């Protein structure tokens, strides 16, 4: 890969996932967050949808990752140079940022634009799995991984109706903590 190509490759992947995957599924226009999470006052996620932010249905914190070399063994077991397991490292970062925004974190990833996969917490999977048509999924620790196209077999409005109460609970908890700290 040419020097500096990783950033443009990641940006292209984020645009593709927003335009070709999340927008058609949701019926709303998802876009890549300018500077990939650079709109700190709005969101730190890689993708967002202004319409959903206004309506209050913006419940997913979407982190996108693309790698040249990626196999599930490496992703789930091998540690990188910092001693971290890649998928869990990505998900931890997304979780911390999502919590501040009262959203559900998901990580969408691929190897050189092969099959797109999505990872989210096992407790979210348990809430959604009866509505998702998939034959293939992996449970690793507290995460579930499945093909993104299989995730899209559940209707967007069903995801919102199932997960929005969790996001609202995050908001209530944070408000209670704020009041307690005054």
Could you please describe the fold and organization of this structure?
The protein has 182 residues and is an alpha+beta fold. It has one domain. Helix content is 47%, strand content 18%. The chain has 7 helices and 7 strands. It has a 5-stranded mixed sheet. The longest helix has 26 residues, at 156-181. The radius of gyration is 16 Å and the shape is globular. The model has no long low-confidence stretch (mean pLDDT 82).
Strand percentage, roughly?
A: 15-25%
The SSE order reads HEEHEHHEEHEEHH
Secondary structural class: alpha+beta
The domain tally reads 1
Arithmetic mean of pLDDT: 82
**Number of DSSP strand runs:** 7
Residue windows where pLDDT falls under 50 for at least 5 positions: none
Structure annotation, total helices? 7
Largest β sheet strand count, sense and barrel closure = 5 strands, mixed
Shape field: globular
Radius of gyration: 16 Å
Oligomer: single chain
Strand order of the largest sheet: 3-4-5-7-6
Kindly state the percentage of residues in helix.
40-55%
Distance between the termini: 52 Å
């Amino acid at each position: 890969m040419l020097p500096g190509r990783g950033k443009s490759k990641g940006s292209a992947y984020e645009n593709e996932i927003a335009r070709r995957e999340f927008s058609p599924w949701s019926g709303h226009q998802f876009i890549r967050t300018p500077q990939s999470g650079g709109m700190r006052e709005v969101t730190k996620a890689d993708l967002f949808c202004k319409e959903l932010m206004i309506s209050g249905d913006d419940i997913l914190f979407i982190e996108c990752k693309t790698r040249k070399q990626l196999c599930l063994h490496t992703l789930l077991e091998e540690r990188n140079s910092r001693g971290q397991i890649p998928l869990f490292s990505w998900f931890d970062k997304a979780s911390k940022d999502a919590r501040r925004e009262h959203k559900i974190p998901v990580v969408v990833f691929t190897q050189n634009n092969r099959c797109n996969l999505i990872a989210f917490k096992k407790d979210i999977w348990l809430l959604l799995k009866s509505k998702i048509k998939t034959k293939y999924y992996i449970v690793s620790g507290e995460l579930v991984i499945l093909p993104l196209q299989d995730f899209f077999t559940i209707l967007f409005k069903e995801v919102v109706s199932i997960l929005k109460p969790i996001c609202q609970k995050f908001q209530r908890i944070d408000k209670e903590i704020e009041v307690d700290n005054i």
